[in-house]
Amino acid sequence: xxxxxxxxxxxxxxxxxxxxxxxxxxxxxxxxxxxxxxxxxxxxxxxxxxxxxxxxxxxxxxxxxxxxxxxxxxxxxxxxxxxxxxxxxxxxxxxxxxxxxxxxxxxxxxxxxxxxxxxxxxxxxxxxxxxxxxxxxx
Length: 138
Hints:
By secondary structure, this protein is α+β, with helices and mostly antiparallel strands. It is 41% helix and 15% strand.
């Protein structure tokens, strides 16, 4: 995977680089508190408010997406290249959808609704194969 770069006009700080590295290492979107704990494990001293400020800046620059999962009161953050998910309603497992199905009907939405689509995120909720097996065995 190509390393993400801090946009021009912004300093490439140790904290920003570390936040991007954490998000690259993790397959699924994370809460800011989880990013904070991972940074602490790596010996990087940063406050939670600094993490939120950096996530906000990275989101505005299009490197990070902010997602709210059903029945969660806190946002999750992930790389913009990983923004379409299958989510198990039982175990909360999150799987990234690599082939974005949105592109197939994007033009139709634009034509029918006249809406300029700038970005998107898809969350599909269901039951994962492991939970289905467990339900059958019960």
